[in-house]
Each structure stands twice: as structure tokens, then as C-alpha cells.
Amino acid sequence: MTPSAVRGPIARGTIRTTFVLVLYLLVQAGTLLLVARMLGPHQFGAFAAVASLAVLLGTVSTFGINIVLLGDVATAPNLRRRVLPYAIPTTLICGGTLLAIYLLVCLLALHISGVSWVILLTIGVTELWLQPLFSLTVHEHHGLGRIARSQLLKVLPLALRLVAVASIFLVNPADPLTTYACAYPVVSAVALTLAVRTFSHRWPAPKCWRLPRPAELRRAAGYAALAMSASGPGELDKTLAAKLLPLTAAGIYAVAARIIVAVTLPVNAMLTSALPRLFREGRDQPNRTGNLLLWVFGTTAIYVFAITVFLWSIAPLFEWLLGAKYHGLGQNIRWLCLAVPGLALRMVAGTVLMSLGRPWVRVGFEVAGVAVLIAAAVTLTAMFGGLGMPLALACSEWVMATIGITMILGYTAPHRWWP
Q1: What does the alpha-carbon distance between residue 409 and residue 415 come to, in Å, rounded to a whole number?
Q2: Are the beta carbons of 257 and 337 closer than 8 angstroms?
Q3: Phi/psi at 407 (nearest 5 deg)?
Q4: 3-class DSSP state for residue 371?
Q5: pTM value?
Q6: What distances in angstroms separate CA 112 from CA 18, 141, 205, 206, 305, one per listed residue?
Q7: Residue 53 contacts by C-beta under 8 Å, 6 or more apart in sequence?
Q8: What is the pLDDT of residues 251-278, one digit of tens each?
């Protein structure tokens, strides 16, 4: 297989997916800008802490059945009728259990000031019930090969959320955090309703639902673990920041962290486009996969170098956009530039390990990364204050990237593809 044969379909898929992800980025950026300005760093730090914890737990609400649905539909579209009848009730039961855990952790352990039980409940219902149910529709489209369409559908609740935020920003209520939190589930419920009703095949009626069989749960459990471990380093840091730092400093860090995650979206687009071929060739055709791996890692390295230099140079611009309350945001972004290459390479390494049939290795190094994040955050915030969190995230991402790449080199050593 020639390099151009490897690059062609993936490059075209990446361009299409990147176009959708640029829209995703613009919507996210607009929402972040409005919410950050509306709430201020103190309230934004509180909101980011509880929302990130909900998002992290929400990755397990479907218990990995969303990935099972994607894989089965990709094999035979009619298999949706076998998976959805147990996917929906499993999400409701698992999400309800996680919602109770989430509320207990927030009320008994986090003690974030200014966050009422109403805010916790609305965020929890959204991220642990509504968004996981919505993800089933996104993964079904992905399984049918509609990759760009699935990503476009993923933008829908964010676009509706942007409209809600803009409206709240213009009205300027006395308690914008509570108002925004109450709009959270309404927006997601509207998006879910639109997604289900406009799908060519309707969801099964409640009378057709059933509980999953033990074999079905075992099959999905690995995907659930993968989802949570992959999201852990990218979400847990905001909750840790709110616990270890003053809320104002935590809010400034949370905004900076959201920005550096956003700049890796093109890497995510490339991985999304390459994933079917990686899975198809990763275990059975290692020699053909070598060219693909070299192209993926090489492209990632070039992009990451360019975007890190660019982000470093424009970091002060974000302080101007968000106002004087966010003094120190530019410094946070520049320190977080240390984490950008590690973050992108970690994403690539995790995806490649899955395609090589080593998902639990990915879980292992990401769990190790979470442990490093917690230990480094506690240590470095005590030493350097607010700048300790960017350094802790950089340590975590580089440890995961190093372990992941080392594992890949070991597994592919008999079919050496690197220079």
C-alpha cells in the first residue's frame, strides 16, 4: 500500500470531519466566552467543578453500550433492533444510580460554595441521563458510516445551549448561574427529542425494553472502563482545581484548560476518520498499518508544534476577550502549552492501542495518568499556587503519552515501521 493510498480516504474524511468540528469549536468557543463573562471566574470555577464531575460520571451512564451499538450497526444496520431495547433502560438505570452518587459526592465531599442543590440536580440530570441517551443517536449514525453527520448531530445540543446562554446574557438576571443551570436540561431534552423523532428509524417503545443479559453487560463493560479512563484526565482536573485552589483561580484555570482541549480538535478529526481502517488492519495486517501509524503520528507532531507556537503567541488575546476579571488567563494558557503535545499524543496512542486489540492497556496508562494528575496537583498547587494545575496536567499528559507510545513500539516491534 502506497502512502498516498493510505492518506487519501483518511485525509478526505479528516477534512469533512474537521469542517464539522470547526463548527463545533465555534459553538463551544462562543458558549465558553459568554458563560465565562456572564459568571465571572469565581462562579465559573464553581460551575466547571461540578459540571466536569458530572461529565466524567456521565461517560459510564450507557455502560459502554453506545459503543456496542456503533459496532453492531456498522456490521449490520438491523442489529439496532437487538441493542436499543436494552441500551435505553440500562442508561436510565445506570444514569440514575450515578446521579445519586454524584449528588452525594458534591454535597458531602466537594462543598463548592454558591452551588445549590437545584444547580447540582439540573446538571446531573442533563449529563447523567439526557446526554447519554442523546449519545446513542450519535453513535448509531457513526456506525452507519455517517461520520460527519454524527459529529454534526453532536453539535445540536451545544448550538441550542449557545442560544440559551446568549439569551440569558442579554437578559442579565440577578442569579445567572442558577438560570443557566435550569436551562441545561431543557436544551438537552429538546435536542434529544429532535434527534429521536427525526431519525429514519424510531426508537423501540417502552413495552419492548428489557434488561441486558450478563453476556451483554460483560461485552460492554470494557468500553465503559475505556470511556471513563479516557475522560478522567480531561475532566477531573477542573474538580481538583476547585478543591485545591480559590474558586477564582480555579475558574481562570478551567477556562484555560477548555481552550487547550479545543485546539486538539483537528487531531480528534483525524483519529475519527482513521479509526475504521485502524480497526480493520490493526490486528490482521500489521505491515499495512505501519504506513498509517507513521502518517498519523507524523501529522500529529507537525500540527501540535504549529498550534502550540500559535497558542503561545496569542495567549494574551484571551484576557482581552474575557475582561480584567480574568487577569492571569494568558499565563495559564502559556503554561498549559506544555501539556498540548502530550495531550494530542496521548489521544493518538490510546486510539492506536484500541485498534491493536489492547484496550485494557489504554485503560491502564490512563488510570496511571489520573493518579499522576492527583499526586502532582496536590504537590504542585501547594508549591506554586494556581500555576501548579497547568504543570500537573502537563505531567499527567506526558506520562500517559510516553507509556502509550512505548507500549505501541513494543507491540509492533516485529513489524518495525518507525525510522
Answers
A1: 10
A2: no
A3: -65, -40
A4: helix
A5: 0.85
A6: 37, 38, 40, 38, 37
A7: 102, 105, 106, 110, 235, 236, 239
A8: 999 999 999 988 887 787 777 666 666 6
